[in-house]
Write a structure and sequence with these properties.
The complex is a heterodimer of chains A (about 900) and B (about 280). In chain A, helix 2 runs antiparallel to helix 5, helix 15 packs across helix 16 and helix 15 runs parallel beside helix 22. Chain A is globular, with a radius of gyration of 27 Å. Chain A is built from 23 helices and 33 strands. In chain B, a hairpin with a 2-residue loop joins strand 12 and strand 13. Chain B has a five-stranded antiparallel β-sheet with strand order 4-5-10-6-7. Chain B has a four-stranded antiparallel β-sheet with strand order 11-12-13-14. In chain B, strands 1-3-2 form a three-stranded parallel β-sheet, with no helix packed on it. The termini of chain B are far apart. With about 280 residues, chain B is α+β, with helices and mostly antiparallel strands. Classes of the chains: A alpha+beta (about 900), B alpha+beta (about 280).
Chain lengths: ~900, ~280
């Protein structure tokens, strides 16, 4: 069906099947890829466009309905070449775009509103944006950007030497607010073959493949386990337990079994039940109890007892210390599988270039991808090139391979480019999750409220494959006592295989689960002794000079007490307001809670170096070559800021090359909150190295001031000005490497697991509807010791986004295989759920870090759920022992509490 | 790939329905059911039929055209009788869904958690079905026969919903309980229409959704409200025994016991709200 319509004010024509979704037609046929597809089901709003001026999900509109109508996309917002609309500029200035995948949808939803109402209220903005999900920002900066659209306050461009600490706009921001950034599904060539993966509908089954020849005749290829040269991958060098395609045996629902390769329509047209797979389902093992049962079948044949790993930390004598304690609290706390729910589903394409394979995909870790693909394909690492696309959110979920192995194998064997884009249900079913945990905690203190003893055992369900399970099981014992000085500690972690989805890395590596337990204990001990909950924590806070449970003395930068000091005025005022509110009666009760955390930056007791380069070309182009992937958190900008000040030239003169394994050195993975601290330090060293070379060339002193104009570099040293002609002196290249100093942990967990730790305390005010069990978070105040905020706007963005995910963990998120594999049954917070989040930045400098900086990505999330759950307890007297605290669970706990009182 | 028809007139659509078609209007239920797979069925797109769109007042009440969107309903000048339906309209998905999704689509999709159904039940809406050979009308309660099942025959098309004019001045309201704000499937919801004469409730219609396979009216509660003073104490009239027509289930959103409890709390608030 051929039809005519108006696209961004211009006549457009299109020809195709009229049931084609508008989103697909825009992206695939009209080449307008600013409109993003996140779910194809109207659940996420990423594909929002204006149709005759009204916001609609373009994934729900049939092209047959477009004839003669007006469609506006993000590409139509710009008022001229390089002239952003006020709304776009406002998003940029406010830091409202992080990964940028929801940004076009947010902009279009906001555009419908601001066109009619340029000074909208907060409530009007929330109503307008309520249908667009964002997983990065916590929405606050987006709402502010829309409300301030008529009077944006442009961010200033700092001068040379002034980049660190300034709120410069994201270096990749313009690409994100204009829709030009290229995500995994955006840059796919038109001549590719497509893959559709047939996945297991069973959590545990054996299967046999029937005759695939009839399918092969209809398609280009049908890949099975036999087509994978080495059919096992995994995060750890010695645990390659996850097959690319299952070989006769599936261990979780959603596991890949067969890959159909062919023209897009052809692979889509084949239904799963047309693929001859004879299933023999077996009773699945769900949860750690079933996995630990004596007669439990083994999920992995070589893992007796279904045990992946166990270990812990021991210091002092816990049993003796408990006997002397004035108060002892204990409790068990359970958490669920939690889905990352990045708005960009996994996507990418690969092509064979001679004897090399080149993969363009969304990822958090280009070099790990390179090495893993090489291993799977039995190629040398140098034969694999990873070209990361923009990453539409990761949060740990894009550290594991997803589309890469299949597109690489297919492209390699077929000699044609091959693409794979996961559907939303596929993304949710196939990808890793946060580990469900059962944390049993016991804490004791003396009459003064000083903690004396702590005993924590955390059991983790690591699902079908190891993934990052060992990392979680290692990290949690180091953190499970909380950010407190406790002389006697026993912490223990065990991870078990099950037929759940593989549990992997998710913002915090198990620490958020453990924090729910230790913070509940702090509340209970404080209450027992009649000590204010904040003051109790303050009394026990780890401080510089203290020795941790692993025997590490914290020399510097342990700012928890300062975080608590910063929260104290808010805490006291809120207590008064809440008491007054609760006096008024009614079905709503308010409460306030506090959560504290510490978080080791970088890998646990393992080398994790980053290498960075800063180059100055003969033409005068100043380039940062950064392998540190920006997945929305802002490392592209942070690295430029750090490098700029280290060189002594303005950040705006930098060009950035990022991620491509052919062009950048290994800067490790974007995980463990390590990029600012580790890669940032490497960028600083690289910048300093370049500066030293320049100073040597100019024979200038360390205080010299540089300026770069074209190919001329001027070096002013006092009254002396020397110029360097780069055309003859160049190219120059500075290099820097940093690997944070750590030591291995011994059998008792003693050693230096991390070079530095972030600290934080957050408070949450909530309102509980005691008849319905619903919890509305009214306000979060978050105090974070980040060492140094390289870019306060980006730090706030991390905090606000982390808080939103922590809110989801506490109140609504629970992944149930087969039941919540979409974004309407699996709930993440909307703009209406995330309250105002006030950020208080504490800068207790870390001497090892770049300009004193540590990390913020994961720390942002950890304290939020404990604070919310503490507030619910304050409001209702109910302590949640299971999250998410869904309305029915809270209501039932309140009813049970009333009964036990009666 | 199947056929795709986009008639401009109702006659043409009804002629087409002499063979099976999947009916498409706002697309907000059609496409989510087809994620990641090819659309192969024959599709009858009725969104282009002008006669099916819009709201008009008749001698006996109001006619809501089948493909009227939720946003069009919200923006239509309608008496307070429709406040509950309008409040429900603002709870259907996000603004994008409200701009696309249609009233008849919500009814024909027959989800137990359809936000539009309780207020339409409380409005005593009738469903007008057209067939090549004529039309018929069914009360909404008879039209929805089960979970995702309706009385529509394959050759029929829902062309409108009809809301009768109440005898006395009417007020209405809607309340929804969900686990988050925006874009959320209801755990429970309720809607009420009260006719008020001389400060007293002259007639009451109350319906609860997401607590039974099909949203249910609560006749015992309706009777208990008649004669009551129209003020904020109305909520006190709702009793657990009034919920007998409901049969809540356990699911990922809530337990059966909780749903029953919550429905009562929602009802009491709804009644206090409508009279406030």
């Amino acid at each position: 069906m051929k039809l005519e319509f108006t696209l961004n004010g211009r006549a457009a024509s299109w020809d195709g099947a009229p049931v084609t979704r508008l989103a697909a037609a825009l992206r695939d046929d009209l080449g307008v890829t600013g409109t993003k597809t996140g779910c194809d089901a109207g659940d996420c709003g990423a594909c929002t466009v204006l149709l005759d001026g009204r916001q609609v999900c373009s994934c729900l509109v049939a092209m047959g309905q477009i004839e003669g109508r007006s469609v506006e996309t993000v590409e139509g917002l710009e008022t001229g070449p390089d002239a952003m609309a006020a709304l776009q500029q406002s998003f940029l200035d406010h830091g409202a775009a992080q990964c940028g995948i929801c940004t076009p949808g947010m902009l279009m939803a906001a555009q419908e509103l601001v066109r009619r109402n340029s000074k909208p209220s907060r409530a009007e903005v929330e109503d307008a944006l309520g249908g667009v999900l964002c997983r990065c920002t916590g929405y606050g900066k987006i709402v502010d950007a829309v409300m301030d659209v008529v009077s944006p306050a442009p961010a200033s461009a700092p001068v040379a030497g002034g980049a660190v600490g300034s709120r410069i706009v994201r270096v990749d921001g313009p690409a994100k607010v204009t829709g030009r950034d290229v995500f995994g599904a955006d840059g796919i060539p038109t001549d590719v073959l497509w893959i559709r993966v047939v996945r297991s509908p069973h959590a545990r089954a054996h299967f046999e493949l029937g005759d695939l020849e009839p399918l092969r005749r209809r398609l280009t290829a049908v890949l099975t386990a036999a087509d994978v040269p080495f059919n096992g991958y995994g995060i750890y060098p010695d645990i390659k337990d996850q097959p690319v395609l299952a070989d006769g045996h599936v261990r979780y629902r959603g596991e890949a079994v067969v890959a159909l390769v062919g023209e897009r329509a052809a692979v889509l047209a084949i239904r799963d039940d047309e693929v001859p797979i004879a299933w023999r389902p077996e009773p699945p093992i769900f949860g750690v109890d079933a996995a630990m049962a004596e007669d439990a079948p083994l999920v992995q044949a070589d893992r007796p007892g279904n045990l992946l790993l166990k270990g812990g930390v021991k210091r002092g004598d816990v049993a003796v210390a408990f006997e002397a304690c004035a108060a002892v609290a204990e409790g068990t706390f359970e958490t669920a599988f939690v889905e990352h729910a990045y708005i960009e589903p996994e996507a990418g394409w690969a092509r064979r270039v001679g004897d090399r394979i080149e993969i363009h995909a969304t990822t958090q870790t280009p070099y790990m991808d390179r090495d893993e693909i090489a291993n799977l394909m039995r190629l040398k690492p140098e034969a694999v090139r990873i070209v990361p696309t923009a990453c539409g959110g990761g949060f740990g979920g894009k550290l594991d391979l997803s589309v890469q192995p299949l597109i690489a194998i297919a492209a390699w064997t077929l000699g044609r480019p091959v693409a794979l884009v996961y559907t939303r249900p596929e993304s949710m079913a196939a990808s890793t999750k946060r580990h469900p945990a059962r944390v049993k905690a016991r804490f004791g203190c003396d009459t003064e409220g000083k903690l004396q003893s702590c005993d924590v055992t955390a059991l983790f369900d690591t699902g079908a494959y190891a993934s990052w399970g060992p990392t979680v099981a290692n990290r949690v014992p180091v953190h499970a006592m909380g950010p407190y000085a406790i002389p006697n500690v026993r912490t223990w972690g065990e991870a078990y295989f099950s037929n759940g989805p593989p549990a992997g890395a998710f913002r915090g590596f198990g620490v958020p689960q453990a924090a729910i337990a230790h913070e509940a204990m702090m509340d209970e001990l404080a209450d027992r002794l009649g000590i204010d909950r904040l003051e109790f924590r303050h009394r026990n806070a780890l401080r510089a000079g203290d020795t941790t449970a692993t025997g590490q003395t914290l020399a510097h930068s342990a700012g928890l007490a300062e975080c608590l000091d910063a929260l104290r005025p808010h805490w006291r005022k809120a207590h008064e307001e809440i008491a007054a509110f609760n006096e008024t009666g009614g079905p709503h009760r308010r409460g306030i809670g506090i959560g504290c955390m510490w978080y080791g930056i970088g890998n646990t007791s393992m080398s994790n170096p980053s290498r960075m380069r800063v180059g100055l070309s003969p033409a005068g182009t100043l380039t940062l070559y950064s392998g540190a992937l920006d997945i929305g958190q802002g490392s592209n900008t942070i690295m430029v800021q750090i490098a700029a000040d280290a060189v002594g030239l303005p950040a705006e003169q930098f060009t950035l090359v990022t991620g491509d394994t052919d062009l950048t050195a290994d800067a490790g993975k974007t995980s463990a909150s390590r990029q600012t601290f580790v890669s940032g330090k490497a960028a600083e060293k690289a910048g300093q190295d370049l500066r030293q070379q320049i100073l040597r060339l100019a024979n200038a002193g360390p205080q010299a001031i540089l300026s770069l104009e074209g190919a001329t570099l001027s070096v002013r040293d006092g009254a002396d000005v020397r110029t360097i002609d780069l055309a003859t002196a160049g190219p120059l290249m500075g290099e820097g490497t940093f690997d944070p100093p750590t030591t291995p942990l011994d059998a008792d967990g003693q050693g230096v697991p991390y070079a530095t730790y972030a600290f934080a305390a957050q408070l949450a005010e909530v309102e509980v509807d005691i008849e319905l069990g619903t919890v509305k978070v009214l306000r979060i105040v978050a105090a974070h010791d980040v060492g140094r905020a390289i870019n306060p706007t980006l730090v706030e963005g991390q905090i606000q986004g982390g808080v939103a995910q922590g809110l989801g963990l506490a109140l609504m998120e629970e992944y149930l295989p087969g039941r919540t594999e979409n974004l309407h049954d699996y709930l993440i917070p909307t703009v209406g759920d995330v309250p105002e989040i006030e950020c208080l930045l504490i800068e207790d400098r870390e001497p090892l870090g770049p300009s004193g900086a540590k990390g913020i990505g994961e720390p942002a999330l950890v304290p939020t759920a404990p604070a919310i759950l503490g507030a619910v307890h304050h409001a209702t007297g109910v302590r949640a022992h299971r999250v998410p605290l869904l309305p029915h669970r809270l209501r039932e706990a309140m009813v049970a509490q009333q009964r036990s009182k009666a | 790939m199947g056929d795709y028809l986009r008639p401009r007139g109702l006659e043409e659509a009804l002629q087409a329905l002499t063979r099976p078609f999947t009916v498409l209007a706002g697309g907000t239920d059609f496409y989510p059911a087809r994620v990641g797979r090819a659309v192969t069925e024959d599709v009858l797109d009725i969104a282009g039929i002008a006669a099916l769109r819009g709201i008009s007042e008749t001698e006996v009440g109001w006619r809501l055209g089948a493909t009227t969107t939720w946003s069009e309903l919200v923006e239509a000048p309608l008496p307070p009788l429709f406040d509950g339906l309008k409040q429900a309209a603002r709870e259907v998905g996000g603004r994008q869904i409200q701009n696309s999704g249609t009233i008849a689509g919500n009814v024909c999709n027959a989800s137990p958690a359809a936000d539009g159904v309780p207020p339409l039940l409380a409005l005593e809406a009738e469903v007008e079905l057209a067939h090549r050979d004529g039309t018929r009308r069914l009360p909404l309660a008879s039209f929805i026969t089960g979970v995702r099942r309706t009385a529509r025959q394959p050759a029929e098309l829902v062309v409108a919903l009809h809301v009768p004019r109440p005898r006395a001045e009417a007020r209405s309201a809607f309340l929804k309980l969900g686990a988050r704000r925006y874009l959320v499937i209801s755990i429970a919801m309720a809607s009420v229409v009260l006719e008020v004469a001389e400060g007293k409730v002259a007639a009451a219609r109350v319906a609860v959704g997401a607590c039974s396979p099909v949203a249910q009216r609560l006749p015992l509660l309706e009777r208990a409200l008649i004669g009551a003073s129209f003020d904020a104490t109305l909520g006190e009239r709702a009793e657990p025994s009034h919920l007998a027509p409901l049969s809540p289930i356990d699911d990922i959103r809530g337990s059966a016991a909780y749903r029953g409890d919550a429905a009562l709390a929602v009802l009491r608030r709804l009644l206090s709200k409508v009279a406030a």
